[in-house]
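Recall that a protein's primary structure is simply its ordered list of amino acids. Everything else, from secondary elements to tertiary packing, is in principle encoded there. The following example makes that idea concrete.
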Amino acid sequence: MNISPNAQRPASTESRFPKIEFWWDFASTYSYLSAMRVEHMAEERQVEVVWRPFLLGPIFKKQGKPTSPFNLNPAKGRYMWQDMARQCKKLGLPLTVPDPFPQNSLLATRIAHVGRDASWLPDFARGVFQAEFGEGADISDPQVLSRLVQDAGADPEDLLAQAVTDGNKISLRQTVEEAEHKGIFGAPSFVTEDGSLFWGFDRMADAFDAALTPRD
């Protein structure tokens, strides 16, 4: 049975655990690593993860970057892929360099934004990351995304229709503005309940530690 795209997670007020926002972009390599590990760490630390899909492209453009910094700086890009190979091997994750990189993640992100409060979102997000960076699939392809939505337990036809509505597009732009307001400039980023910002997969554990240690 398909899960309604409007199916809600349990209300946050019911959680007895501290919360942490996980801001991620489907085109981000280190968001891939984080998405595959964040729920494991949340369970270990007893922290509730709030998944926040957004787009880095508009933020990069305001920084004067027309594409990924890893493309603008070839040495940095070569290092990143070497590091990704090491990290994926350590975590037991597959790695295929997408062509092109970065992928066009707009439709995937719009779908994720529709389901930002839905129970199927984490499975969909992990499925997209796995297809993109594990298999080298084109995540701008509606057929690929339809399969991944269905695999996550939601209705592909309904979700793809909702994803391209003007209301959803405007709401996603507002989410990007919210990310900027929080000081987010890259992905993955983690924001604790007191507003502390941590950037990067290598700071995920620090973010969870901070979520469990309220600021004085």
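Residues 16-211 form a domain with the Glutaredoxin fold (CATH 3.40.30.10). Strands lie at 19-24, 48-53, 189-192, 197-199.
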